[in-house]
Amino acid sequence: MQFPKRASLLCCLALVAVQALVYSAYILRLFPQKRNPGEVDTIGYFVGSDTELYANDVLNLTELKGETECAEQFLDTYSRYCEKAIVPSSEVARQYAGWSRKELCPCLPQNLTGTVNLNMNSLKLSAQIFSGLHPGGHWSPSWCIPRQRIAIVVPCRDRAAHLDLFLQVYHPFLQSQFHSYSIFVVEQQEPEIFNKAALMNVGFVEIVRRKDRVFDCFIFHDVDSLPEDDRNIYGCYRLPRHVAAFYDKLGYRLKYYKMFGGATAFTRRQFELSNGYSNEFWGWGGEDDDMEKRIAAANFSFMRFPKCVARYTMIKHERDRGNPSNNRAALGWYYRPEVYQRDGLNTLRYTLVGYEERLLYTKIIASFSSPSTAAPKASTPTATESAASPTPSSDRSSSS
After folding, report:
1. Is 1 a catalytic residue?
2. Of 215, 223, 316, 324, which Cα lies nearest the Cα of 271?
3. pLDDT tens-place string over residues 38-47
């Protein structure tokens, strides 16, 4: 009669062990573990090869190497990689008949100084900056062939003062790096509660569907994030990039290892395979953590430049009207691959209220249904549908 009791005890122990493993996996999912300095990982900076992106842990790079040595090592490796791997697409090449690699813009222009003027009292757009701009906030160097065409997408509302500073900083910043770029400011008219992630999706969709300009790289950028180093080269690479990584407000340290907010960079393919941002995060918080999980579900990791070049100043401000803390923000911590297929670019619904090309930027205005009255989510697409047609069939109506 002892055997049933012993078997029952063993079953209980096995059940406890399984529950412990499940709980451990849950904890690891929510709280990614730190790497040891020097451990190879796919979050990091360019090292090693001229033709492939290798990554190294960057959390302690600046402390171990020192600011000057860190920047020199990184920029040297970046330059060698860029010269071989970052070349214009065939579509761009066709615009320049008989072009040669010697005509490409330099990866690290000699005018870069390692600083950016962030003196709020002296900032102003020079006549030279204005003279080269085309309608819609577009600029391209006339003396060399740009390596990438970059769309800067800025979601905002009621932030006129911050937008003014942003434009005064970023036009000279991007021009100093010899980029072909355009700045798109995406604003929300309705409802009152803000949906930053859906606005970024709107910006992407509207840019892609207009064929007058084609972009290789999309950088989704907070309006209150200003770079401190002009050697923080903007662009897109083999992996999505966490661009604005190290903030003065946080002591130039990552708040947590897989932080993925502030400014992020994607190629069109990377963004579409991730199905864009979620449309379900109303109010402040959650969408950036959710995006980090989305790119993981699309079999990407992401990369950062080291903090010796990727430092940012955050403009101080009060919480925006209509942007309360999102009580569902914690959902961004969960890995939910089944959700990513049915919420994102393929379920985006909005009304295009306005599209206007101003001198300093292109203004896009959109409205959404209120969260309580939003249309039901579309059915989950098949794998073939997701890969073949990731661009959404949105309900768009334009008044522009």
Report:
1. no
2. 215
3. 322 333 443 3
